[in-house]
Specification:
about 525 residues, alpha/beta, 6-stranded mixed sheet, 24 helices, 8 strands, elongated
């Protein structure tokens, strides 16, 4: 990025225009108010308007500001909306919003200073894909290099969080460092102090972002940044978890430590430490088979894959898990933060639930659930009562109590029909991987990886199981092939391409013709 001049970037002969693109909870309104307050304190005339985006992360709110120095006996007429090709500063609180600002023509190479955070908040369109639907952020970063006059881009969301604040403070710091406004840094800081809330944290984030922006380099991203795996700690502060961590350190190769610890934490949260101990036992048996079949030469890839996917298989999504997650205090706090609710405001979350009798039977004790399923007339009659959509307000006493009671069934989960079936399915899957291990090591690793096809609950879970079974049906045809692992990987990727499995059908026909 070109070095920034110490002189004001923009002319003040006409209104200076700023567009801010931010989602709920990112403080876009606060940032707009700060800029207006800053300008007015410096003797300028300023105006801000906003156009709300659509909820559920399909669009951001656009805050538009115009300002210019006050002139005696002259009242300026300022615009209410940004005009493509005529915006001086664009501030995007998320990377893809920066990309959208370029597509809308708000960012132009002869005029616009672009300030953007490089972190991602995934859109509904990205989340709803069966596989990896994440947009490629490198395309956006590369595009902004020639689309904007100057660019300041780094992860301002993480920086703000590390300093105990929200991204609006970091964006304000980057704006101050850009010299796009002809005001001293001290004036920006004074504006924050005048706000009266969270001053110290906001100033810390502001100054950290200001310093980072002055480094003069935009940040590059990989298309799919790797997830951080927490290292194995010396102590967890929980005696039972400490014993499991000690087992991981003594009994398993270092390559698997991070994933095993993540699995132990996940399963303790899902059920209890004893259940996490069962996970360690199961992966330990797979590790023994890995050692016998030359796993050391392969970096114990089979064990590493097992550490990840056995934990996922054991932490299946059932009605109890869903209810547990919905009534957690941390979820209520997170939603309040996301919508920017103040302390005195009441926030109600309306959930859409559509249970089926299959889920009800799965939650019941095994014998009772099987007894109902084996009586089709009774099952159908009960399903007509249960199987309909409901809009549930989890903040009300009635619905919160109901979900809380369902979440309390966790202590009885091991005796449920769903758990019984999950164990049978899991062991059948692992047996397929173990049978392939002596004949084709890489193929066995891919068999473990196929577990990612099974996810969710209700209809989503049923579709995933169907695809999983269809993919592994090709295993006998691939076991003797040197490229068997590559073909199984292609089948898995095909299964993730569409919801109905059309691509998978074609891929299976190709494998059958080999």
């Amino acid at each position: 990025m070109p070095a920034m001049s110490s002189s004001p970037l923009l002319s003040t002969d006409r209104p200076l225009s700023i567009a801010i693109l931010a989602m709920g909870g990112q403080g876009g309104g606060v940032l707009a108010d700060w800029i207006v307050a800053l300008a007015e304190e410096q003797g300028w005339v300023a105006q801000t308007t906003s156009v709300p985006g659509v909820a559920q992360r399909t669009g951001a709110t656009i805050y538009y500001l115009e300002m210019l120095p006050a002139r005696q006996d002259v009242t300026p007429i300022l615009s209410l909306m940004p005009t493509p090709g005529d915006v001086d500063v664009v501030i995007a609180a998320e990377l893809m919003e920066a990309g959208r600002s370029v597509m809308r023509g708000l960012v132009t190479p002869d005029k616009t200073m672009l300030i953007a955070s490089t972190h991602r908040s995934y859109a509904v369109g990205e989340k709803e894909k069966p596989g990896d639907g994440i947009g490629d952020p490198t395309v956006v970063v590369d595009a902004t290099e020639f689309a904007a006059r100057k660019t300041i881009a780094f992860d301002m969301d993480t920086l703000a969080a590390k300093n105990g604040s929200v991204i609006s403070s970091a964006l304000f710091g980057a704006l101050a460092a850009s010299k796009a406004l002809p005001f001293a840094k001290e004036a920006f800081e004074a504006t924050i102090r005048a706000g009266g809330k969270g001053i110290e944290a906001s100033l810390k984030a502001f100054n950290a972002a200001h310093q980072r922006a002055l480094q003069g380099e935009s940040e590059k991203l990989n298309a799919t940044p790797p997830k951080r795996i927490e290292p194995l700690p010396d102590r967890t502060g929980h005696p039972e978890l400490d014993r499991l961590v000690s087992r991981i350190r003594k009994e398993f190769p270092a390559e698997a430590h991070g994933l095993l610890y993540a699995g132990v934490k996940k399963l303790t949260d899902f059920q209890d430490p004893a259940y996490a101990g069962e996970y360690i036992d199961r992966v330990g048996a797979l590790y023994a088979a890995d050692r016998v079949n030359g796993g050391e030469e392969k970096g114990f890839a089979f064990t590493v894959q097992a550490a990840k996917y056995v934990a996922i298989a054991m932490a299946y999504d059932d009605v109890v898990r869903v209810a547990d997650l919905k009534v957690r205090a941390s979820r209520f706090d997170r939603v309040r933060n996301e919508v920017g609710a103040r302390g005195e405001q009441i926030v109600y979350m309306t959930e859409y639930m559509h249970p089926r009798m299959e889920e009800v039977c799965g939650t019941l004790p095994r014998k009772l659930g099987e007894w109902i399923e084996n009586r089709p007339a009774l099952f159908a009659r009960l399903d007509r009562m249960v199987n309909r959509g409901r809009r549930v307000k989890t903040g009300t006493i009635f619905w919160f109590s109901g979900l809380y009671l369902i979440a309390g069934l966790r202590s009885r989960r091991r005796g449920s029909l769903r758990h019984h079936r999950e164990v049978i399915h899991r062991e059948a899957w692992l047996e397929k991987a173990l049978s392939a291990l002596p004949k084709n090591y890489d193929l066995a690793v891919e068999v473990l990886g196929c577990r990612r096809l099974v996810k969710g609950y209700s209809d989503t879970h049923s579709r995933g199981l169907s695809k999983f079974d269809r993919v592994l049906s090709a295993l006998p045809m691939l076991i003797e092939r040197e490229d068997g692992a590559a073909w199984l990987r292609r089948l898995k990727q095909s299964a993730l391409l569409d919801e109905n499995g059309v691509a998978l059908d074609g891929a299976l026909k190709t494998v059958a013709s080999l």
